[in-house]
Amino acid sequence: MPSFFSIKDFSCGYSNRYVLENINFDISKGVLSGIIGPNGSGKTTLFRGITGQLSTKKGEVYLNGNDLQRMTYKEKARHIAVVSQHTNATDITVEDYVLMGRLPHRKKMRFFETAEDYEIAYKFMELTNVIHLKDKLMSKISGGEQQLANIARALTQQPDLLLLDEPTSHLDITHQVQILNLIQKLNHEMGLSVLMIIHDLNLAGEYCDYLIMLNDGKIHKKGLPEKVLNYKDIEEVYNTVVVVKPNPISDKPSVFLVSEKILNKMED
């Protein structure tokens, strides 16, 4: 049986410079997967390659057996929704912002939203708990609320795969947990397949079912969080001394940093 989402021998980059080389991984349907790695390892570049923002140097990307590289932008948007780390907080109401997620499904010569469009948008505004903000301007709500509206718009596309580029970036711990609990709920209750770039290794270990660790444009390791998040691979990729222990409640891997001051004391 073919994988739900598959990348084969994939390479892409900027101009004549390769950034990602020979990327290979498969994701099963309904899995919450995370992409981790240090800055400059190619995480966001991979997303841009998947969505076609960057041209592919070589390789193939398949979703449900369909070649994404043969799809138009509008066709891709019916199957894949992207939530970026930066929300375009313009002077548009939350309702109108979320309704923009219906654009890929709009037929030719149809210029206005249908009753079905509103029904779908309201469903996901309620699910993401932004329905009470529908008449407020995006520029007048908090960063956490903007990100929730961003997720609502992505869900309104009714995608097969949700791509999130560091959805908790610049948010405090309360909003980080709120966003990730929501994503986990969508994944569990709706069976939504998720591929998420995530900067925080502890959040990656706690919430993701599967991890892909990138380093220098290549896959360093992939598999279950318990396999990927170990001190040897983290120290090799991040060049930082860490201790990895199971979370005493969830049993998921937790990463502890060790300061230079403590390391110096240990050496003495």
Provide structural commentary.
The protein is of the alpha/beta class and 268 residues long. The protein has a single domain (5-224), classed as Rossmann fold (3-Layer(aba) Sandwich), CATH 3.40.50.300. 35% of the residues lie in helices and 27% in strands. The chain contains ten helices and twelve strands. It has helices spanning 43-51, 73-79, 94-99, 115-127, 143-156, 173-190, 201-207, 225-228, 231-238, 260-267; strands at residues 5-14, 17-27, 32-36, 56-63, 66-67, 80-83, 161-165, 193-197, 210-215, 218-223, 242-246, 253-257. The strands form three sheets. Strands 6-7-8-3-9-10 form a six-stranded mixed sheet, with helices on both faces. A four-stranded antiparallel sheet has the order 2-1-4-5, covered by helices on one side. A two-stranded antiparallel ribbon has the order 11-12. β9 (210-215) and β10 (218-223) form a beta hairpin. α4 (115-127) packs across α5. The longest helix is centred in the last third of the chain and has 18 residues, at 173-190. The radius of gyration is 20 Å and the shape is globular. The model has no long low-confidence stretch (mean pLDDT 91).
Keywords, separated by commas or semicolons:
268 residues, 6-stranded mixed sheet
* Distance between the amino and carboxyl termini: 57 Å
CATH fold-level topology: Rossmann fold
Strand order of the largest sheet: 6-7-8-3-9-10
> In the residues, how many domains can be counted?
1
Number of strands: 12
Rough outline: globular
CATH class placement = Alpha Beta
Structural category: alpha/beta
Low-confidence blocks of residues: none
Taking all residues together, what is the mean pLDDT? Answer: 91
Counted by DSSP, the helix tally is 10
Largest sheet: 6 strands, mixed
Based on the structure, what is the oligomeric state of the protein chains?
A: single chain
* Percentage beta strand: 25-35%
